[in-house]
Design a protein that fits this description.
Helix content is about 35%, strand content about 10%. It is of the alpha/beta class and about 375 residues long. The longest helix is centred in the middle third of the chain and has 28 residues, at about 195-225.
Length: about 375
């Protein structure tokens, strides 16, 4: 027997202080393979050894989290796949890339879950109290569909279908023993100068509506499992907006544009090509859908504070991490309209009601959705 669930580490198993299972797309992916070197205390990511990711100009948030913003021993099973969506049967972006549904069903369940048919030799033994699951999807779903599904009714209907697959996958993880979840919203890529004004209007509306439906269904899932589950929704839209709005204080020189020469990846974080006005690490965005590595560092600080809430100590500058997270999420400042935002279609109370009805009809219980100003976004709860 390899696994004695939640009780002890057996002599034949690899044990770890804290285990993270991460599911996501290019914002999270580190190109991990379950068929190569597995994570351990001395090698928390297992494979590959190369730290750079193509979707930024350095390492991404989960590597910062595991190597800087913790004072515990992390072992990370990063099942995220760049280019993935929630469900390839709904959003046919790159059908050969493992979606969230497939990351759970084709990788986690057979090879890493306690009852997996092909559990890998050398994989860690974990227990619910010391295990966290992170889920970050929606960017590829939105950029693929926002121009086609260009009305509130069409978007909310589409996103309700996505949420059915999303929370079915989370429920599968829950039933396998996972109890601590961190859910991330779609970040603010709708301040990009790469898009036309019309595209920005539609993209902003799509992200706003998606995040609202995600928050509503997350609150419902948490309510259904409140006795034994901790679930945090991290508003990465607000985080990126805050960094964009205060870009100078974060050390950036360029707020909303990116340099095409950097868009497909760079060899070093501070790469400076002649075609670009500044080095890559002086830009908030590396391309039209991704942010640079110093933004990922801020993501890691935020996630570290959420882990602290479930008992995992923060490493690095813990006070700075807490201050940053608090400033973002507790600030009374309004989101500023950076450019022509008055024409953006915001998620209205009527749309909130529509999303609630759709989710309920699809057997996804929801709580009351309320429109919270000044942000023009839907927040859930009291």
């Amino acid at each position: 027997m390899r696994f004695l669930f939640g009780i002890l580490c057996l002599a034949s198993a690899v044990c770890a202080k804290h285990v993270i299972f991460s599911f996501g797309d290019s914002y999270t992916s580190t190109a991990f393979s379950v068929f190569s070197t597995l994570p351990s205390e001395s090698n928390p990511f297992g494979n590959p050894t190369f730290n750079m990711t193509y979707s930024t100009n350095g390492i991404n948030w989960i590597k910062y989290l595991a190597t800087e913003y913790n004072s515990s021993t992390y072992v990370v099973y990063n099942l995220a796949v760049a280019g993935s969506t929630i469900d390839n049967n709904i959003t046919n972006f790159r059908p050969n890339y493992r979606s969230f549904v497939e990351q759970v069903e084709q990788t986690y369940l057979p090879y890493l879950s306690p009852s997996g048919a092909y559990v890998l030799e050398g994989s860690v033994t974990w227990n619910p109290a010391e295990t966290t699951t992170t889920v970050w999807f929606g960017i590829n779903d939105i950029v693929t569909t926002y121009q086609e599904y260009n009305t509130a009714v069409a978007r909310v209907s589409l996103y309700a279908r996505m949420m059915q697959s999303y929370w079915s996958a989370v429920e599968t993880l829950y039933k396998s023993g996972m109890k601590n979840f961190i859910i991330m919203t779609v970040p603010a890529i709708d301040y990009q100068l790469a898009y036309s004004d019309q595209q920005l209007t539609l993209l902003h509306a799509a992200i706003t509506d998606y995040n609202a439906v995600l928050k509503s269904s997350a609150e419902s899932f948490a309510a259904m499992h409140r006795d034994d589950t901790k679930l945090e929704v991290v508003d990465m839209y607000l985080a990126v907006w805050y960094i964009v709005d205060n870009y100078k204080s974060f050390g950036f020189e360029v707020q909303r544009a990116f340099c095409e020469a950097y868009a497909d990846g760079v060899p070093f974080p501070d790469t400076w090509y002649a075609d670009c006005e500044y080095p890559a690490d002086d830009y908030v965005y590396i391309n039209s859908a991704h942010v640079t590595t110093d933004v990922h560092r801020q993501f890691a600080q935020i996630i570290a504070t959420k882990l602290e809430d479930i008992g995992v100590p923060i490493g690095g500058d813990a006070d700075k991490a807490r201050e940053f997270a608090s400033e973002i999420f507790n600030s009374s400042r309004k989101i500023k309209n950076l450019e022509a935002a008055d024409n953006f279609e915001l998620f209205t109370s009527a749309q909130a009601t529509a999303s609630t009805s759709l989710l309920t009809a699809m057997s996804i219980p929801v709580v009351t959705v309320s429109l919270s100003k000044p942000y023009g976004m839907v927040y859930i709860g009291s």
